[in-house]
Amino acid sequence: MKWGIEMSKLIEVIFPDGRKENIPQGISLLELSKRYENEFIAPIVLAVVNGKLKELRSHVTENCKLEFLDITNRDGYRTYLRSISFLMLKATHDILGKNDKIKVVIHHSLSKGFYCELKGYKVTEELLSKIKKQMDELVNRDILIEKRTVSLDKAVKIFKDNFMEDKVRLFNYRRVSNVNLYKIEDFEDYFYGYMVPSTGCLSNYDLVKYENGFILQFQSRNSPSEIAPFIKQPKLFQTLKESSDWGEIMDVKTVGALNNKIAEGNISDLILVAEALQEKKIAAIADTIMKDVNNKRIIFIAGPSSSGKTTFAHRLSIQLKVHGLKPHPISVDNYFVNRELTPKDEDGNYNFECLEALDVKQFNEDMTKLLDGEEVNMPEFNFKIGRREYNGKTLKLEENDILVVEGIHCLNDKLSIGIPKQNMFKIYISALTQLNIDDHNRIPTTDARLLRRIVRDNTYRGANAEKTISMWPSVRKGEELYIFPYQEKADVMFNSALVYELAVLKQYAEPLLFSIPRDKPEYIEAKRLIKFLDYFLGVSSEKIPNNSLIREFVGGSYFR
């Protein structure tokens, strides 16, 4: 093989399929990747060298195990999204210039895109067209995305000079001595994570005007050759907007602002306000149910893993009791089919996430009988032996009784196919964090839920962080298939995220993450989460109320 460079010394690389090849020592990963790009269905954007993520700007200097990642890979996709965001910020800077009155804020994920706002400037179709055109120009010029390391003090000065006060606050609490900054021509910024080597690596993006801001739309992991279609999600958007409004009320929109509250000794007040806002929302949901209480006899609660469904169901039940109702909790999990009848996935493992893992027919028969006033022998699923059992527990609805049913499929009409629609009230719950690292670095809601689950699985299920992380892709796949497509069917949505919770989870999650050995596949994700938690000052759980949603994960809940 002719490499086109002087081969002073060859080193050996081992690829995931076991192939061994000799390559020139010191070759860049970017140059090396071009030899293998035809083996991938999407652009290569990142690499794993001896179990560590490496940007393509890095060089191979010694014998190693090497794996290239394209955007269909989880970490590769994160790199692509981060780089697309940087491209948009640079293009906006080119169009509007450097101004202390104007700033772009990347808020949250919405319909396979990021919802962004332009503070201090009106978003118009004409403006978005100009920004998009400038993004295209930057891509066509294939500009190097430079990376440099500067001292913490110098980084803070750069942030001040560029009116990035959110980053100034963030780095007031960093314990590192140096900071990595990225630069496209004259625009420099800080990002949590890796970047592609140049703007020419980016493609398939769009800007869509939406509400008071716009959607930065991009390609999906599963279809990397095309832009994901924008689908309006008005209920989810309003819930996310309400969360942002809560952040305004508490004056905590970024991690730096949260750390200020902690450092100034105001965390107790923040906890009380955050909990009060959630309780007020739960009470409002109960009030809504009461407006049609003669018909709404079954409340369905659905949400992804670690969204806090159990605690929410208990707290909603308390609010319903205030109105004189008698709630009866029912877990759809008790209607699992016996283990030997459970469908299996493509890998031959039991698929507990799919609807077919439930006895839908029996569930509908039981719910219909309860609505008709009949007494029903209620099942309990024995997870140890994998069988549904009947242990003499019966239920009959009396006057003012109401069912509170919780399960991941509760928004899917196929689960409740035999139940009259007028008798149902559906609630979607998820941990939609209103907090971002800074204005340009968002916190994915999946990260907050993963940390919740890591802590809960260790506390209550005897599973270590390594196992939880290894299972997470499968959990996320189930959510994408069986939960998220139905969330807009909910009558109301509830955000279970608490603005202070990551500062609390930090003290529980960090030791569990540090315990994962470096040679394990889960180490890369553990390392990323450790770095993420390092942005937060820690907070003790002592002052958290015992009915708080976060107690479901860290322990001490009234409802366990």
Radius of gyration: 25 Å
CATH architectural grouping of the largest domain: 3-Layer(aba) Sandwich
Number of strands: 21
Specify the CATH homologous superfamily of the largest domain: P-loop containing nucleotide triphosphate hydrolases
Here the CATH topology of the largest domain equals Rossmann fold
Tell me about this structure.
The protein has helices at 29-33, 74-96, 125-140, 152-161, 165-171, 234-250, 255-263, 267-290, 309-322, 360-371, 445-460, 465-482, 501-514, 523-533, 551-554, and strands spanning 10-14, 20-24, 44-49, 52-54, 64-70, 103-109, 113-119, 146-151, 178-184, 187-189, 205-210, 213-218, 298-302, 326-331, 376-377, 380-382, 387-389, 394-395, 401-406, 424-430, 492-495. Helix 2 packs across helix 3 (125-140) and helix 11 crosses helix 13 (501-514). It is α/β, with parallel strands linked by helices. The strands form 6 sheets. Strands 2-1-5-3-4 form a 5-stranded mixed β-sheet. A 5-stranded parallel β-sheet has the order 14-19-13-20-21. The protein has 3 domains: 10-70, Beta-grasp domain (Ubiquitin-like (UB roll), Roll), CATH 3.10.20; 76-218, Threonyl-trna Synthetase, Chain A, domain 2 (Threonyl-tRNA Synthetase, Chain A, domain 2, 2-Layer Sandwich); 234-554, 3-Layer(aba) Sandwich (Rossmann fold). It has 15 helices and 21 strands. The model has no long low-confidence stretch (mean pLDDT 93). Strand 11 and strand 12 (213-218) form a beta hairpin.
